[in-house]
Design a protein that fits this description.
By secondary structure, the chain is mainly beta. Helices cover 12% and strands 52% of the residues. The longest helix has 6 residues.
Length: 141
Amino acid sequence: MLRVSLIGHLGGDPELRCSQKGAAMATFSVAVNQVQTDTGTGERQEYPEWFRVRAMGRLAEFAKRLDKGHRVLIAGRLNISHYQSRSGEDRTGFDVWADEVILLSPPDASADETDSAPAARTRPSVATTTDDAALDEDLPF
């Protein structure tokens, strides 16, 4: 099993739907920028790598809060697939089945924020697949 952690920006609003059994599911894309320096010019260039993220249950419910451009951290299982595009071109797809989704910053957050809301900058919103009831059962008190 391949496990990954990604930090990137949402490429669009999450698509939410329910399974036949009523479980919530969200699908969204995340762009992770690769930075390379051109050896000829010394210029830094950014190339986005796109990942499709799938979230189930509580994570899908949390994804309702996410919007295009939000900076997020995604942790989960990586699934790599190979396919041909409609034009016959060979492609590779990267799907991440999320175990954890953390909202790092909204798209309009900038470095020149005022100190009026320091807690908003230091406390990211977090969602995981961990069941709180199961954790309570393991406590010795």
